[in-house]
Amino acid sequence: MLEGLLGFAAVLVLVLLRVPIAFAMGFVGMIGFMIESGYRASISMTARLIIDTSQDYGLSVVPLFILMGLFVNKAGISRELYAASNAFLGHFRGGLAMATIVACGGFAAISGSSLATAATMSKVAMPEMRRFGYADKLSTASIAAGGTLGILIPPSVILVIYGLLTETSIGKLFVAGIIPGLLGVVLYLVAVQFTVWRDPEAGPAGERINLSGRLSALKDVWAVLLLFFLVIGGLYGVFDVPPINLSFSPTEAAGMGAMGAFLIALARRRLSLADALEALRETAMTAASLFAVLIGAWIFSNFVNIAGLPTALSDMVTAYNLPPWMVMGLILLIYIALGCVFESLSMLLLTVPIFFPVVTGLGYDPIWFGIIVVVVTEISLITPPVGLNVFVLRAVVGDVPTATIFKGVTPFWMVDIIRLIILLTLPGLVLLLPNQM
Amino acid sequence: LSAETVLKISSWLPPTHSVNTGIFANLITMMEEATGGEVSGELVFGLAPPPAQMDLVLDGAADMAIIFHGYQPGRFVGTKLIELPGYEGNAEDASVAYWRVYEKYLAALNEHRGVKVISLNTHGPGQIHSSKEVSSLADMNGLKTRIGGGVAGDVGSALGLIGINVPAPKVYETLESGAADAVAMNVGERVGFKLNEVAKYLYDMPGGLYRGSFAVIMSQEKFDSLPEDVQKALDEQVFGEPASRMAGASWDESDTIAYEATKNAEGTKITPASDDDIAKFEEISKEVTDKVLAELQEAGVDAKAAYEMVKQEMAGN
Amino acid sequence: MSRLLKFAASLPALLASFALFVLMVMTFCDVVLRSVFNAPIEVAADMTRLLMAIMVFSVLPVVSAKDGHICVDLTDGMFKRAGLTRWRNAFTDLFCGLMLVLPAMRVFDLAERSRSYGDVMEYLRLPLHYVGWFISIVTAITAAVLIIRGLGHIFAPKLMSPRHA
Ligand code: NA
Ligand code: NA
């Protein structure tokens, strides 16, 4: 148990020295495993994980969902989504920020990653909000927070990895994310309203658009609806009817979605060869850095595992005979604390193997826990000091200090906590849709 | 009361799987009893995927592991002998026969070189579990089925099954989404893979369409480091035939539990093969057997004699 | 000459892009062929594994050369104020590069072992040690790239482009 905790501390130190997360976890895991099992065993385990992780069939969804988001972006869909939301919401106070949230939710329905959602929407929504004199703290915060929806509203790379780690149905996890994701949209709208209520100057109203303008904006979003329907409908088996009998597994849904986005972009003549190559190259680079983190995290979790941390924790829970809700509360506090400093994927990889057996042992539903984990992961993306979505915004926008974004984002993670409490008390909201499958 | 040596047993199967709760749990008890508590074991889960298990043992990351031979195509040929259809008897009979034929014929192939083989076993007969009703062999023609390679794959193509090649953890989602109609597995797996939810129909061929081959392996180095009397006690009382028999019996037990669970589950149906189908399957069985025996012969085994020995052993058990 | 070099430098990313594109098209075709014609691509799962390995590992050196790994840049300001950025960069690059050396060699050993056992892919029948060799070589190149970067920070700081966040 002590070795495991020391390992955590060592990873933290290395990460703060700006050692890439993959290497920090891999190194500590390798050394720790070496102390437990010897030199040859440790290097060999590391080498095997390098070989096997890159060839994991289930992980093929990761690059394919990223690719789908990029093709969609090239097709100009993100711009149209924003225009459509804006046509309906822009004339309210804080309306452009609200439109950003809704467009983020829409983009989340075709993008598997929160960082991609935030990065994409910042390119589209930020210039508009600046044009209308929105305060930087509100405009950047609404994108950073809205972007987090990317991993809750399906498809979601994080849910895929949770499903792989825990052998839980990815299809059910995806479907379970829909209601909590919509709840997130609504609560973020409340957070925008809260911000403009405190500071009316932060979000002046935009221009009102008439009905015909609204309708024409709306008809541009067909591509999003089509892709979402293709991916999620496929999971529900909607197309498995004669004469097409089209059916695909969640793993294959990523390939179908990417191909669909590719074809839509082609059909709209928005995709040049250079664009396509750029999307493919960017996906490969992102996937390679994600896979590096996965390998590092797996090496580290093997060390934690063999050092007996999960067993020690389970034993502790049994020994103190704590009521389940209290254990769950403690776990969530640990998540929120870790989430302040850890990157979302590494946090998931570090903690799920440890907490999952404890949680399911207490009788909690694995699908429900997956959604709860994703919600706390979303929170981690916008809480200081390490909030990756905030960093993405700073990188894309350039001239807004990180501190300003963190300040603006505070009401957003506060409503996230409210959402967390709602989902904890009403698990039915999560389980309603997957139980229909 | 603490043991001198606690062997690290790597397992890639979920903690609740009968390999862990049955085979490994029993093996630990057997080792403790044989050595007066000097040697014990503890399970470590999820260290590496199935094909990496032998490397883990070879390099000392684990002291013991179970391997499924079908996950390493090209490496194991001799082990196909026990995967053949047409043997009569349960997993315990097959596992005992397996160990005996291994000692006499297969060990010479040295396919497990570098590690110590301490148990050979097969799961219960492999059957077809489907989401739409399969009531005869003819219904299998064109059925999209997740089926392994090797002998199972050969039988599958002879039956006209359309192979859907996905890893085992993807079985549930593949069936649920309709990307496959059926899966070929031993009946015991119905519980762990929740097949009573997604594959309500079980077509039951006596003796099965194939059997899966497993070995429990141990680090030779670790074994050599044990005191001589302990080595002797393990070799005589645990490893080899006793551990193989125990493992086979454990697979049988998981089958019994799963048959019971299937009968009690809602909307499930077990269809026993008709006499006609049994006769038809014998022909397929013979074709596949001839092909595999030729492979074994080429690898350097007296294939015919080895095959006859398994048949006889299983009939005599 | 520099044009040729530039082209050579873009080859790994091109290879990765190609692998990813094939993976996408193949998944699509597999689903359609299976659903409509009841004729799935038998080698699809093997191909998926192979294409993923090609995609991930051909760009790994590029990601490393461009400082594209996921990092926490929380302390950047501190290091900058202390004037230690260059030394910090030298440390992290050398650290990562050196750390990869032993695993890269071990991957090669495991590939050789796999060759001695005759391991192949189930349906493609492709010997697995080819994949192992590829991964090993690329991991070694990645290690070399990182070590060269680290040395660059120490001995030729002017040559090193400023890091991007
Ligand atoms: Na999403
Ligand atoms: Na955070």
TrEMBL record, chain A:
It comes from the Bacteria. It is found in: Cell inner membrane. Residues 8-428 form the TRAP C4-dicarboxylate transport system permease DctM subunit domain. The chain crosses the membrane at residues 6-35, 56-76, 96-119, 140-162, 174-196, 217-239, 251-267, 288-313, 325-356, 368-392, 412-433. It is a multi-pass membrane protein. Its main location: membrane. Keywords: Cell inner membrane, Cell membrane, Membrane, Plasmid, Transmembrane, Transmembrane helix, Transport. Belongs to the TRAP transporter large permease family. PANTHER family: C4-DICARBOXYLATE TRAP TRANSPORTER LARGE PERMEASE PROTEIN DCTM (PTHR33362:SF5), SIALIC ACID TRAP TRANSPORTER PERMEASE PROTEIN SIAT-RELATED (PTHR33362). The complex comprises the extracytoplasmic solute receptor protein and the two transmembrane proteins. Part of the tripartite ATP-independent periplasmic (TRAP) transport system. This is TRAP transporter large permease protein. It comes from Roseibium algicola.
UniProtKB/TrEMBL annotation, chain C:
InterPro entries: DctQ (IPR055348), TRAP_DctQ (IPR007387). It is found in: Cell inner membrane. It is a multi-pass membrane protein. The chain crosses the membrane at residues 50-69, 90-108, 128-151. Keywords: Cell inner membrane, Cell membrane, Membrane, Plasmid, Transmembrane, Transmembrane helix, Transport. Its main location: membrane. The complex comprises the extracytoplasmic solute receptor protein and the two transmembrane proteins. Part of the tripartite ATP-independent periplasmic (TRAP) transport system. This is TRAP transporter small permease protein.
